[in-house]
Design goal:
Length: 694
């Protein structure tokens, strides 16, 4: 049962698609204060678990820390960070009582989940205009499924998007892209997509192509397609300010960009230098911006990734003006300080050493003190809260200052694309994923989890985030495999790929300036060929489970506790996940480990895909086990009484032979395989699934 409580005058975020009548009275759980802003308080029991929050830091159980939904471009995902790129305000409190809460509020909102006081859950925000949905159900899993129905069906990508993708910030020319494709094809490493980062554009201008490097772009797209490769270009939120650039000129003429209070177009510096933000919260501007994707689809492009849409701001003109003021003061102070210290220095010449040291110290101190405001100003230029108060949106609900709806920008930019794809070709699926998001965006695209690092801890963070994202509707998700920032090592890349085998989005992506981490850059490429090959062997199953999850508002990744709610040990497991209805995954995420401990809530078949193409199977009983997993092996566990189909590896998704599948698992078991053409929107009904048995 879902109850909706309305406070003040909420902004219509359109996160929810089902009509829910406004409930009378107050929620049965917790208490609410609306005197100053909004605050929900609930006393948790000692063993309550709190799930949810989608793309958030730390564990699967969110207890013990404080998180703020405030979409932020921060590439340092260290443990202390409270905000990442997304705002997913859905949690489930699971204990003796279980209930779900969705705070539909588009500005910053804080979830203090036993951080200030161990047993107190406090959800608070500055404004008091929001819809609160309270969901009761039989179990946490049931509550999640009700929530997923409330927010509408998750995005369904084309089937090729389950293939492997290679990306790197820095590929510039056709030759760079051909080299990537050759590197994979020559070494037999499967590949379906190569991502185009900002360097394909002319001076980082959205919907343009570098004229020198990409003459005859449609022919190049075709050349790649003939090799079964899709090129997937990036689109950034900011539109470059440049006379003669049609997107800029049209936007200015039609008032489609976000404006300052005085009506002038707000200027934010991002990769291209000065840019304007398309007002994607304004329906007309959104349609206009969305239709620009056509410029590339007409040249054969079938998928995109939307970036910098928190929106990220390196600095604003106002920020620079303020910095100049602080700089002026600093220079003036420096002159005074150096005057004083020079005088002191003159006296110092006669007295002893000690006094001279004192003067030196004072001088250093005076300099440092006046440097702080300057350093602070420079450090605070990017993504400043102040800048988010400097521009407005023209929405259905009137003119709204950006900070009040900040968390919706990336969601609506991706909605612009999603709605445009419907107009461009209503029967075709396009690949789309975004960096920033709000719940509701899950209907238009997936997300990748942004600028992680080549750190072992980020493999584990990747794993823990997946079920939380699924709970919030985001099914097509994945992390930058191998890590975006910092230098990847061969073992880290292999272990991370072995997790990526199971994430719907499987993409290796890295920042410019980092060590090259394409599979063919490392020794013994055959190990990479094997691990990625296992992904392709599993695609019939993974795609089938994805489609079942999407079509039934279900989870692709689940915590063990959702499947084994009675098992108190399973409730605590955070480094193993259930995938679909048949398997459990338990990746290795520590360097130099030759295996790992796993907990089995029931008997399972431990399966390893070995590099020689064979598979080992071993039945393991309920309980704890240590399992050996070499760097070039891919492990999974098949649940008791179940089985899964496995194909032969292929160089691309379209080349997979799905007719001749072998079955792995328990004798006598059967599996209902979902299959369709992978591109149209004619989804199949359960009676059309293909029954396969062992
Ligand atoms: C941002 C993106 C990253 C991309 C880079 C350059 O940092 O998150 O994926 O490579 O911008 O476009």
């Amino acid at each position: 049962m879902i109850q909706k409580y309305v406070y003040g005058k909420p902004f219509p975020t359109e996160a929810v698609v089902e009509e829910v009548a406004q409930a009378a009275g107050v929620p049965v759980y917790g208490s609410i204060e609306t005197g100053q802003g909004f605050c929900f308080t609930y006393q948790m029991e000692e063993n309550d678990i709190v799930y949810g929050l989608g793309e958030a830091n730390r564990g699967l159980n969110k207890r013990g820390y404080c998180y703020t939904s405030d979409c932020t471009d921060d590439p340092n995902h260290t443990e202390d960070k409270r905000s990442l790129y997304g705002a997913h305000n859905f949690i489930v409190v699971a204990g003796k009582k279980a209930f779900g809460l969705f705070f539909d509020y588009p500005s910053a909102i804080t979830f203090d989940i036993g951080y200030t006081q161990a047993d107190t859950l406090k959800v608070s925000c500055e404004g008091a205009d929001l819809n609160l949905f309270v969901i009761d159900g039989e179990s946490p899993y049931d509550i999640v499924k009700q929530f997923r129905k409330l927010i509408g069906r998750s995005y369904i990508p084309p089937r090729y998007a389950f293939g492997f993708g290679q990306s790197r910030w820095g590929y510039k020319t056709k030759e760079d892209f051909r080299k990537v494709v050759d590197g994979h094809r020559k070494n037999g490493v499967p590949l379906d997509m190569v991502y185009m980062d900002i360097d394909y554009m002319q001076n980082f201008k959205d919907f343009t192509l570098n004229e020198k490097n990409f003459p005859d772009f449609p022919e190049f797209v075709q050349e790649m397609k003939e090799r079964n490769i899709r090129l997937i270009p990036i689109i950034d939120a900011g539109v470059k300010v440049e006379e003669g650039y049609d997107v800029y000129e049209e936007g200015v003429k039609n008032r489609y960009f976000c404006q300052r209070e005085d009506g002038s177009d707000f200027v934010a510096a991002v990769w291209p230098g000065d840019t304007h933000f398309p007002d994607v919260l304004n329906e007309e501007a959104r349609t206009w911006f969305g239709d620009k994707y056509r410029i590339l689809t007409e040249q054969g492009i079938e998928g995109f990734w939307n970036d910098m849409n928190e929106p990220a701001i390196f600095y604003s003109q106002e920020g620079i003006a303020e910095l100049k003021e602080v700089l002026k003061q600093f220079v003036a102070n420096e002159d005074i300080n150096s005057g004083i210290t020079a005088g002191q220095m003159a006296d110092d010449r006669k007295p002893g050493e000690a006094e001279r040291d004192n003067a030196e110290e004072e001088k250093a101190l005076a300099g440092a003190v006046s440097l702080w405001p300057l350093m602070g100003k420079i450090g605070g230029l990017a993504n400043s809260k102040e800048d988010y108060r400097r521009f407005y949106h023209n929405t259905k609900a009137g003119r709204v200052r950006h900070d009040k709806v900040h968390n919706l920008f990336g969601c609506y930019m991706t909605r612009a694309a999603g709605e445009a794809f419907e107009r461009i070709d209503p029967d075709k699926r396009f690949l789309m994923f975004s960096r920033s998001s709000y719940i509701g965006m899950h209907r238009y695209g997936g997300i990748w989890t942004g600028d992680n690092k080549s750190w072992w801890s980020h493999i584990l963070l990747n794993l823990k985030m997946m079920p939380s994202l699924n709970m919030c509707g985001f099914l097509y998700t994945g992390a930058d495999l191998g890590g975006f920032g910092a230098d990847a090592t061969r073992d880290l890349a292999l272990r991370w790929l072995a997790l990526g085998v199971f994430t719907p989005l499987m993409r290796n992506h890295a920042a410019q300036g980092t060590r090259e981490q394409e599979c063919y850059q490392f020794e013994n490429i055959e190990d990479f060929r094997h691990v990625i090959g296992v992904r392709y062997r599993l695609i019939p199953y993974l795609y089938s489970e994805y489609m079942k999850a999407a079509l039934n508002n279900d989870l692709y990744f689940k915590p063990l506790a959702f499947v084994y709610p009675e098992d108190t040990m399973a409730l605590q497991v955070e480094d193993q996940m259930m995938l679909g209805n048949e398997i459990m995954i338990a990746p290795v995420y520590t360097q130099n480990a030759k295996g790992r401990y796993v907990y089995l809530p029931e008997e399972m078949k431990f399966v390893k895909f070995l590099p020689d193409g064979t598979v080992t199977e071993e039945v393991l009983g309920k309980g704890h086990h240590y399992v050996e997993i070499a760097l070039n092996e891919v492990p999974l566990f098949i649940r008791s009484g179940k089985c899964i189909p496995v194909a032969e590896a292929a160089e691309c998704v379209d080349a997979l032979d799905t007719e001749h599948l072998t079955m792995l698992g328990y004798q006598g078991a059967a599996y209902d395989l979902y299959e369709d053409d992978g591109v149209s929107k004619e989804y199949k009904k359960p009676e059309e699934y293909r029954r396969l048995s062992m």
